[in-house]
Records
---
Amino acid sequence: MRFNKVLYAFMLAASVASFTGCAATPKQDSTGQYLDDTAITAKVKAAIFADPNLKLFEIKVVTFKGVVQLSGFVGSREEELKAVDLARHVSGVKAVQNKMSVK
């Protein structure tokens, strides 16, 4: 009987620890958030690549908790604004940080 209580306590502690491992922290996504961010990144990259003027440039897209950061180089200020606009209109994007530079 005592063994069952010890085993139960151990299993409870292990399950609590495993759930805590999937939780989000201020600097790290939860598992679900990571998958959402990955999907947002893919959608933003697809939107940028679909634009014939922007697909020629190296624009890096990183998403963290719904905030998209665009970095890299573009040919003009208009193309920079177009990339930001495309990213803003992707579903799930909360904000866009523009770290791009004009060549």
Note: DSSP finds three helices and three strands in the chain.
---
Amino acid sequence: MNTGTIISQLRDKNSFSQSDLAEKSQVSRVMIGKYERGEAVPSIDAAKKIADALGVSLDYLVGQTSQTSFDKRTLERIIELELLEESKKQTLYDLIDTYIRDFKTRKAFANVE
């Protein structure tokens, strides 16, 4: 998927008009329209501003990752998690694994009924 399509889909998902996104990103509405139509490709600076306004990573905005669930906030936490000492990271991983296992178990039992 190209960057313009991703911008358009995220803008719609956030219920932003092109003008709303332009205001939030400080990128002109005309340029946002051109990006969405594939008439222009955003510079790195413009793409970063748009990604920030839409709450996604730059990688996602430019189609370098398909991890739609990794919003900017999640990615920031993952980066900070990597800075922790190993024992603290393991404690957090264990906690995350417990929540994921419990979620999957509840989901599996909900589908059985």
Note: Residues 83-112 form one domain.
---
Amino acid sequence: MERDVQLVRDLVAAAPGFEGLFHAHAFNEDGVLPHVFFWDVVQETVASFLGGGESDWRVTLQFLEEQLRLDLPEVSQVVSTSFLFNLPWPDQPGYGLVDHLGPAMSARFAAIRPSKPCFQVPG
């Protein structure tokens, strides 16, 4: 089994609130597509942070922090591009979730979504 698919399975085992989402994806996609699945993980995690959802956002962040620290390329790519990059922006509800990222995820988040623009538009 590919490491990114195992990441999804391990997340569902660690955070059973994602089980229904997993089964819906597996049924609709004839298997789980990790990057697509993680779009919904972001939505569910933000909903949980805001007081709704079926998962515990703390468990999700802790699990992803531990996975990112393993420094496995496939896992890092999914966590970075399909979870961290899709977190709310400063003007969106749930942005406060960013303040609860662990050290590895905070560093990666800062690298892929710097707080200052990488370029300046000539004025």
Note: The chain has a mean pLDDT of 90.
